[in-house]
Design a protein that fits this description.
single chain; alpha/beta; Amidase signature (AS) enzymes; eleven-stranded mixed sheet; 16 helices; globular; Glutamyl-tRNA(Gln) amidotransferase subunit A; glutaminyl-tRNA synthase (glutamine-hydrolyzing) activity; nucleotide-binding; ATP-binding
């Protein structure tokens, strides 16, 4: 059996028919995980897997299984799992052990999923390549000289390599969708507030959202259906009955052509995107050009709002209460040394930038104006969705780049988020689906297409995603 490419749905059917036990499935996946040490995708394989297997197998034997029972899962290193280290890939929290389960962790645990390990990430989710981790760079399974994307690069890499059947990541400005594109897997960023943020280490609270990585759109839907829902522990979590509506099959895809053809987009990405649109036309969809001028300002808005929230959220790591501590000559010296040594360069850069835009004299000029621009972008998207059912763009402007290629130029790294950040600013859902490959030497490097839907319309994304997968397979 090809365990590397088996889907959650296929594994569930095998487990339910008793053609495979949970132990056999998990051991097969762990064997693959052991063989990808060179990718540095897993920071830790958990030592309590056997106990989890026994619980899951009992659920199956007693007829209490659901679709995710017994399914091996990987978890990003900033999602709390009680009793396990959660470091956010930072020296600051290298020895922090979670004292409770995150909301999404609890839902997966109740479903009988098997947590097999925690995955590498950009430090505190700040980066787009998984190169800022305090514990080394993660490599792309398709070409180990290239990045897997970020910040959830470890989660994307293990799913692509077959070392987990599903994984969770977090998405603040594209941190699920961009690595999904780079690694050739499906990545979903849900509607803000549809999935609990309780137990997720906050980077930018108004932008962060947990979501799944999977091999197929159907598997991503299975995971989303498990983790979604109201959580009283999260004040930004929407009630379960919020915006209930009748499903309407999507027919019209909007393309912000002027934005998509922005400077810096790889011609091969554009060619692949055009082919994607043609294949969707064959599936019966109408493709319509739309104008969204506010999108051109989204990157600037994001890189004001996000650092501002980073500055606030990371103020708690002061070397006194918990986390990395370094002795100074006085209390201020403790703060300076602990934060200077505990945080990496990219984290310090964003804290400085965020503190500046929030400072007296600059708050209105930068942060205040960014908040106004955010509302304009939201309004423009709402208006666009009156004309079209969803919006399509490439997921990233380039294929996966070489390790070290952009680390010396932060602005070039930030430009990789051009197609993904508008989604987080507006809080709408989006999905990245593999759309083909480009040749780079002897390697085939994946590309992805992004579909964006109105708030709480993930079902529209799953419908169009399955249609796209079907036409690609044919």
């Amino acid at each position: 059996m090809d365990i590397k490419n088996i889907t959650i749905k296929q594994a569930h059917e095998l487990l339910m028919s008793k053609k495979m036990s949970v132990l056999e499935l998990v051991e097969s996946v762990l064997k693959i995980a052991e063989g990808i040490h060179n990718l540095n995708a897993y920071l830790e394989i958990f030592d309590d897997v056997q106990k989890q297997v026994e619980v899951a197998q009992k659920m199956i034997d007693e007829g209490n299984a659901v679709l995710l029972t017994g399914i091996p899962f990987a978890m990003k290193d900033n999602i709390l799992i009680k009793g396990h280290t959660a470091s956010a890939s930072s020296k600051m929290l290298e020895h922090y052990v979670a004292t409770y389960d995150a909301g999404v962790t609890k839902k997966l645990r109740d479903a009988g999923a098997i947590f097999i390990g925690r995955t590498n990430m950009d430090e505190f989710a700040m980066g787009g390549s998984t190169e800022t981790s305090a514990f080394g760079v993660t490599k792309n399974p398709h070409d180990i000289t290239r990045v897997p994307g970020g910040s959830s690069g470890g989660s994307a890499a293990v799913v692509a390599a077959g070392a987990a059947l599903g994984a969770l990541g977090t998405d603040t400005g594209g941190s699920i969708r961009q690595p999904a594109s780079f690694c050739g897997v499906v990545g979903l960023k849900p509607t803000y507030g549809s999935v609990s943020r309780s137990g997720l280490m906050a980077m930018a609270s108004s932008l962060d959202q947990a979501g799944p990585f999977a091999k197929t759109v159907e598997d991503a839907e299975i995971i989303f259906d498990c983790i979604k829902g109201h959580d009283p522990m999260d004040s930004t979590s929407y009630p379960d009955d919020f915006l209930k509506r009748e499903f309407k099959k999507p027919k019209v895809i909007g393309v912000p052509t002027e934005f998509v053809r922005a400077k810096g987009v790889d011609p091969r990405v554009l060619k692949n995107f055009e082919e994607t649109l043609e294949s969707m036309k064959k599936e019966g969809y109408e493709v319509r050009e739309i104008s969204l001028p506010a999108l051109s300002h989204s990157l600037a808005v994001y890189y004001i709002l996000m650092p501002a929230e980073v500055s606030s959220n990371l103020a708690r790591f002061d070397g006194v209460r918990y986390g990395y501590h370094a002795e100074g000559t006085n209390l201020l010296g403790d703060y300076l040394r602990s934060r200077g040594e505990g945080f990496g360069r990219e984290v310090r850069r964003r804290i400085l930038l965020g503190t500046y835009v929030l400072s007296s004299g600059y708050y209105d000029a930068y942060y205040g104006r960014a908040c106004l621009a955010r509302e304009i972008l939201k309004r423009d998207l709402v208006e666009a969705f009156k004309e079209v059912d969803l919006i399509a763009t490439p997921t990233a402007p380039t294929p996966a780049f070489k390790i070290g290629e952009k680390t010396s130029d932060p602005l070039q790294m930030y430009l990789a988020d051009i197609f993904t950040v508008p989604v987080n600013i507006a809080g709408v859902p989006a999905i990245s689906i593999p759309s083909g490959f480009v040749e780079e030497g002897n390697a085939k490097i994946p590309l992805g297409v992004q579909f964006i839907a109105p708030h709480f319309e993930e079902d529209v994304l799953f419908t169009v995603g399955k249609d796209f997968e079907r036409c690609v397979q044919n």
